[in-house]
Amino acid sequence: MRELKDILYKVSLTSSYGNMSGEVKGICFDSRKVQAGFLFIAVRGTQSDGHAYIAKAIDLGASAIVCEQLPDSINDKITYVTVKNSAQALGIIASNYYGNPSEKVKLTGVTGTNGKTTVATLLYKLFIALGHPSGLLSTVENKIMKEVVPSTHTTPDPIQLNELLDRMVKAGCTHVFMEVSSHAVDQERIAGLKFVGALFTNITHDHLDYHKTFENYIKAKKKYFDELSSDAFALVNADDKRGMVMLQNTKASKYSFGLKKMVDFKGKIITNSIEGLELEIGGKNVWFRLIGDFNAYNLLAVYGAAILLGEESDEVLTKLSSLEGAVGRFELVMPGSKVTAIVDYAHTPDALKNVLETIAQFRTGAEQVITVVGCGGNRDKTKRPLMASIACRLSDKVVLTSDNPRDEDAMEIIREMQAGVMPTEVRKTLVMADREEAIKTACMMAKEHDIILIAGKGHETYQEIKGIKYPFDDREVVERMLKLFEN
Question: Which CATH architecture has domain 2-97?
Fold first, then answer.
């Protein structure tokens, strides 16, 4: 337990009423989780306003309330604290409550539209290989050294986040690598955290369902860099036209990586094949297991961050060359099969384009590229026709299917995708709402040496339909079909 005044340290208060020295037994922003002696933080969310649940929180035993606006009825046995931004206050309070764990590790954040998971995962694997006890906070999974903690969001809420960081500190972690989503920045989920470094991979069309405009999306990413401290580093992709924008107002030390421009960490692609990448990096030619131009950027980001974190170049390159990428990111299923099958998380137009252009580099010309792709429900609708357009332009055959339809009708999502299919491309397009049947059909259409891309879900082991997550794994379906093919 901690005193209320201690866990409000660095929170900008506008007023307070009651006993500020009272002990707090727990913190929460979900009124359903309140217990006796808890502090309840009323946060205005995208779905509901925590201010509407202050009375319920008090009924359940809350002894103190943090809010932006006092309720009409005041209970003189309760301590009330008002703030300008309760979401931001929640982050700072959570950090204080858990003893500011981010200050006890070297916390490095990775943001960008594509590549976050691969970069964060590679950094985690690299630092483990270099002998540093490390933690990972990612879309795929959270890891405390080798312990796996299931992941529900790209960036957890502030209480979950600080609780995980605290567990990492207690387990002896010295470094933590974390994906930082634009939603997390905008919703102040990372408020109160101390970052030693921040990486920017790229920014392309995504999340306009939430941010409404591309400009707002850029601002959310940039806000992360604007708030870095002067003793942190900021490392950005200079080949992305908005990479240097991220550095404009940051107090952090500025660094860049890329393949095309004069940068601090430059690479050159020597060989790019289905087996891997050979890069000139750090003055040496090194072979990596990852595939494609986009992974050359990911590897440069990891290399640059490792050097900025104090590691030695040759050792970094040696360890990095032996690592595999994140699950479900350009993942070859049953390598060596008569048909090449790739599962990838590509769920944005740019990511899908990158993957298909990478596949095009490996083609001899005789084989077909068959793409299975869908779009998620309750998400940015404007990218749906773009995804179908790119798939059709860069594939020989396309099967439009469901992704995670969530609360939407799968066929309606597919109809919106079809708006991006040119009349000349209709003949090479199939529609199959059942994702398993779509994958099976693509496999049955394939001949020896053909390439199948299953895009959109990557590492996910479920399909979300009408609020229920059904077990489903693209890789398992593809592998089952490929085994039939081999026989």
Answer: 3-Layer(aba) Sandwich (3.40)
